[in-house]
Amino acid sequence: MNRKLPYNPKLKERAKYLRNNSTLGEVLLWKELKGKQMMGFDFNRQKPIDNYIADFFCMKLRLVIEIDGASHNFQAEYDLKRQRNLEKLGLTVLRFTEKEVRRDMQNVLRSIAMWIEGKTPHPA
Q1: What is the pTM of this model?
Q2: Does the domain formed by 9-115 have CATH 3.40.960.10?
């Protein structure tokens, strides 16, 4: 299932801005995901999908990874609506806090790897 996802072209400039102005947590996680370091899967960062911008996205896994920093503190309802809309597109959203990524990267990476292992077929 590798169908194209809708995206709002008006978000391209905002995504570029976010890539250039990442939080420390995003920078740290990107160092671990870029260059297919996560089990050989290709991730993009600040990827426009529908009317949203995903912090990290892997098309092959249809996986969105979100780092919830201070900007998410007072928008739980919006985040839930956003997540539901992404899930309607057949995507899975994994969420981590900025604090988790900064203080416990190994657990964050382990959680992502465990999710991938549970979703990908193993050779017989």
Answers
A1: 0.89
A2: yes
